[in-house]
Design brief:
Elements (H helix, E strand, L loop, with lengths): L6 E7 L3 H12 L6 E8 L5 H6 L6 E6 L4 H10 L6 E6 L3 E2 L3 H11 L3 E12 L2 E4 L8 H7 L12 E3 H5 L13 H9 L4 E13 L10 H20 L3 H13 L7 H21 L4 H21 L5 H7 L11 H17 L15
Helix pairs in contact: 8-9, 9-10, 10-11, 11-12, 11-13
Amino acid sequence: MSAAPRVSVLLTTRNGAGLLRETLDSVLAQTLADFELVVVDDASTDATPQLLAACTDPRLRMLRSDRQLGVAGARNFGFAACRGSYVAAQDHDDLSRPARLAVQADYLDRHPGIVLVGSEILIASAGRLRPTDHLPGSTPDLLRWMLHVDNPLTWSSVMFRAESVRRLGTFMRQDYEPADDFDLYHRLLPQGGIARLDDVLCVYRWHNANASHGLMERIHDRAAAVLAPAYLPWLGDAAPEAASLVVRHLSDRQPVPDAATLARLGGVLRVLLAGFCAAAPQTRAQIEAHTARTWWLAARAAIRSGVPGALRRWRGEKALRLGFQPGALDILESVAIGLIRRKTGFAPVGQSPGPGRGQ
């Protein structure tokens, strides 16, 4: 076997033949030459084995499980075979831009205190590319905060230090599937910083066969289970309920059902903000501005869904409105939409989840 490559790309697939060829091509077309592509076929029953067998690129290493391991199990199986100092995650239906590996590996080389780096993405849906709602200029301190109120990272955009993950003992904890990636980010936080580049290095393909379809309640429960221990120092016994509120209404973007729930959500944000700003006073202004935008988006969804009193609740949380002020037109439009929906009885639903939908 040749010397260990600089980067291992870890891709797991099950019955992904329809989209897998384009994904493989996007990885094999990288400008960085020193990498291996470790593909785990998780007991596929479609044409995936034949598609992989037809690929003769020597950088591809194929592993196959004859029994279905599940997403987390397949990732663990593949990670054990990765030889690179850096590991880049890749889902079988997403695309990597040509410079992705080179940009991220160079970033980790230059920032030894960063254990994992993600990137900005585009979302491909219904034949169109659309951006996320991320704001540029995030810092590792801000990402640490964002990881406590949302999931700001897309799995197919991340690269991490293999040694940092090995120190954890377990790569993916199967009990947290399908939020096993979110769990990994939190377990890595004590080891160093997590960053997200503004460069668009990944295209996330949103389609009917996405693994998250039909699993939103499970994702919600597992993500809340990740956040509850993190909230414990500030919220004590109220941490599990607070985590569930945050995941449902900030990460999943579900409008709150009433003003009382919005008030509880505001109270949770206020406590979390105070705890974070006390620990990282040097980034207080940036964290406050992000929180203010987060608070407005939650209130905006409630106002637009016709919740009486939502605007007053938003205004009442002065500590959550520092550093960001929505436009007057946005406020007026939101009130008008809410009044129409309340009058007609129209009940809006939450947005489709999409990845890394942090503010």
